[in-house]
Amino acid sequence: MKKFFALIFSAIIFFTGCGEVQELQAEVPPPDPIETTLKAMTLEEKIGQMVMIGVYGTQLNDDIIFSLNKFHFGGVIFFDRNLESVAQAKKFANDIETAANQKAPMFFALDEEGGRVARGKNFLEVAPSQESIGQSGDVEAAKFWAQHNAKILKSIGVNINFAPVADVGSRDTRSFGSDPQLVANFVDAAAKGYEAENFLYTLKHFPGIGKSKIDPHKEISSVEDSREVLEAVDIFPFKKIIAEHDNSKFMIMVGHLKYDALDPSTSASLSPAVMTDLLRDELKFSGVVITDDLEMGAIKNNTDLKSLGVKMILAGGDIALVCHNYESQQIVYNSILEAVKRGEIPEERIDESVRRILHMKSHL
Questions:
Q1: DSSP codes joined into one string, 203-268
Q2: What is the pLDDT of the chain when averaged over all its residues?
Q3: Which secondary structure element, helix H or strand E, spans residue 34, and what is its range?
């Protein structure tokens, strides 16, 4: 053994080309900025990243400042109630970001699908509905209008669109069509359009609400199709984008319907079978999962508000969207915080979601 170490020592001297032993230092990798930011956050700040809220007014006010400073909410969705002009909207977003003074950029979102679902129609050029784009047969039109949406949203300080709709068929004009391959192709083109503008986007409403019998804003309904039909039709467009695009550049919004073949007793937005077993484990989605608005009748009328955020996280979601009521937003936040403190949600589980959120925000 002594001879072995003597030989090693001699070899070191020989290969250094001199009679002195040079210290061999391993390269230390640079610190991961995401992990650095995560470690710098308090528990309260991390939970704030997992709630996106709606606000009232067209300029910064005491209610907004209180919400941001007390609850550290990591994102805001704008509605027409917040928008008057390009200059006003951009200043509003900038003022909110400054007042929040967070360790990570904020998400500013909008529902700019085109057609009847669009905001700021009095001063922004609205894209055609997805239905009319799909009926045109021109896949490149989906890319063009996605780029258009990205550009106009950038101009008002918004950095993520809650579009495109990846549902197959619908009772209104929000879907590209009723053929799953056509929808997948048009959603793929739209995704490429957003990515060409370095703009974040959202596929909704997983695993597909095209067969909804009731408007989920009002009440819950169930989809009775078999697993085979769901996979071949409703899930197909989502599966294509997940497999072919960078998962950190788009969210998936999960809807509130029930699916008999997946989880007949629980809304998709609160279901481990949908969000973990299907979306995470089977489809291998590694990006951010956000719920549809938790104040919709489909979910609010059937589940205790205090449990919604907790169930969402335990099911595999990352961000709870609460669009309208300040009190509801605070209840969802506080319920998550209390669940972590009593051990119902491990802090490591919070960290998993915040890592995904910070990875997405790194593109900003």
A1: EEEET--TT-SS-TTT---EE---HHHIIIIISHHHHHHHHHS-GGGEEEEE-S-EETTTBTTS-G
A2: 90
A3: helix 33-40
> Per the structure, how many domains does the chain have?
1
Instruction: Tally the C-alpha atoms within 13 A of residue 80's C-alpha that lie toward its C-beta.
Output: 9
Distance (Å) of CA 211 to CA 176, 224, 259:
14, 9, 10
Is residue 237 one of the residues assigned to a domain? Answer: yes
36 inside domain: no
In one letter, which amino acid is 160? I
Q: Hey, what amino acid is at 269?
A: S
* 252: pLDDT strictly greater than 70: yes
Domain containing 245 equals 51-361
pTM, two decimal places? 0.90
Are 79 and 118 in contact, with CB atoms under 8 Å apart? no
Distance CA(260)–CA(180), nearest Å, equals: 20
Contact predicate 345/59, CB 8 Å: no
Is 215 exposed, middle or buried (CB count within 10 Å of its CB: 0-12, 13-18, 19+)?
Answer: middle
Lowest mean pLDDT among 21-25, 34-38, 149-153, 292-296: 21-25
| Residue 28 within a domain | no
Q: Are 269 and 255 in contact (CB under 8 A)?
A: yes
Q: Which domain CATH number covers 247?
A: 3.20.20.300
Distance CA 145, CA 149 (A): 6
Which position has the token pair 């209104």?
Answer: 172
User: What is the rounded distance in angstroms from the CA atom of residue 53 to the CA atom of residue 329?
Assistant: 7
Environment class of 339 (CB within 10 Å of its CB; exposed 0-12, middle 13-18, buried 19+) = buried
The answer as to whether 11 is a domain residue is no
